[in-house]
Amino acid sequence: MNDNSDISQELLEIIERYINGSMTSQELKDFNQLLELDNEFKVKVEDIKTMLLGIEAQSLKEQLDILHKDIPKTIVKKPVDKKVKYLNFSKIAAAAAVIIAIGSIWFFSTPKNEKLYANHFKPDPGLPTTMSSTNNYDFYDAMVKYKHGDYNIAIDKWKILSEQKPENDTLNYFLGVAYMANKNTSEAIPFLERSVEAPDEFVFLNEAYYYLGLAYLKEGNVELAKKNLSLSETDASKLVLSKLTK
Amino acid sequence: MGKSINSLSQSELVYAIKSNDPNVLKFFYTENYTKIESLILKNSGSIEYAKDIYQDAFITVWTHIKNDKFVPKNDTALQGYLYKIAKNKWMDVLRSKSFKNLKSLNYETLVYIKDEKDENIDLKNNKLKIAMLAFKNLGQPCKKLLSTFYFDKKSIKDIASELKIEETTARNKKYRCMEKLRALVLASK
Predict the structure, then answer these.
(1) Is ipTM strictly over 0.85?
(2) Is Transmembrane found in the keyword set (chain A) (predicted)?
(3) Which residue of B has its CA nearest to A47?
């Protein structure tokens, strides 16, 4: 490269047009003639060509690390896979430990509540079934089943009635109690919750709170159990509550 | 691009690489790396060296394409060419005295080995290295401008409107940047 070679902007742009091939045929002819005649000029053109290539090559080089990030990781897959497996294993182990921990808390803590529930839960004796009123035939028919311990049949029959009268407090109460007698407290709770929403004169209100409290006790929700039991004025409720708060 | 990159013919690939098509460059770069990485890993190398050698080879192949040194002969010619060049580069490292005398490779020794090899490189290649280094050390605004024009192939008109300046101002800026770069190249001769 010539040290004293000043290149004007115009000349540089002409050389560039020669390099990227955007000259007219006449221009190209003249340019080639000049290259043949002037060796110094030829070197100058070559140097600029190299410089332009250098700009591009370096620009590309500086982008390669970005491109490198997009390479799919297939080679290192095996060790990574192993790692992932170990990772999964340890995750499973951790999960198992957590389950065991929770399980043992449940195992060691529930017996108290379970025992309390088992000691105190007795199905509601139900209503006397005199079948005097034909209007309520279906209701009392189910009550007969309930009293016989055929809780499934009782529930099915009451449910049909409940669909017709979803706001019937007595129906909701007995459905809840039947579900509890059938060892299905989670199904019982919504019916009992609805029955305790009944007005104050509802005859089974205290019992409804009592059974709802027991249901929550069985489900392990001590707070709600206490709350509902305290709303019941029955002796049985007070007894369970005193044992719970002991 | 109308076609998917996978279905490009070799001459289309060469043309796209020549014009620095970013999608094709990315495809060509990412597609061929793993083969070369496994070659180097199997031959006393590491992932670090694999990346280094591969990028070197990639620039070499790109330069050869630019200078019309490479003419594709079959469907995977370019991919094979890149592999061959990377392999040769790694073999040079393995064969070098510095490497044989070493018990373990580290990055400094790799650079040293490469420099040792570079002394024998032909003059033209050396000039390119000087130009690349000069451009690397150029100030950021000039670098950006020249790279956008020469590598991304954006027109002066687009560059001017992006920089919110007159076209003639942009052309003059570009000229002054080129002069700076030329000065750097001359200084490192």
Answers:
(1) yes
(2) yes
(3) B127
B151/A47 CB distance under 8 A: no
* Assigned token pair, A5: 């070679």
In order of their start, the domains of chain B are 7-120 (1.10.1740), 122-189 (1.10.10.10)
CB contact (8 A) between residue B25 and residue A67: yes
What digits encode the pLDDT tens for the residues B149-177? 999 999 999 999 999 999 999 999 999 99
Name which CATH class applies to A121-245: mainly alpha
Interface A:B, Cβ pairs < 8 A: 101
Interface test with A, best of B19, B28, B127, B140 (most A CBs within 10 A): B127
Write a three-state SS string for chain A: CCCCCCCCHHHHHHHHHHHCCCCCHHHHHHHHHHHHHCHHHHHHHHHHHHHHHHHHHHHHHHHHHHHHCCCCCCCCHHHHHHHHHHHHHHHHHHHHHHHHHHHHHHHHHHHHHHHHHHHHCCCCCCCCCCCCCHHHHHHHHHHHHHHCCCHHHHHHHHHHHHHHCCCCHHHHHHHHHHHHHCCCHHHHHHHHHHHHCCCCCCCCHHHHHHHHHHHHHHHCCHHHHHHHHHHCCCHHHHHHHHHHHC
Mind listing the pLDDT tens digit for each residue in A6-60?
789 999 999 999 998 889 999 999 999 999 999 999 999 999 999 999 999 999 9
| Domain map (residue ranges) of chain A | 9-68, 73-110, 121-245
Report pLDDT digits (tens) over B26-60: 999 999 999 999 999 998 888 888 999 999 999 99
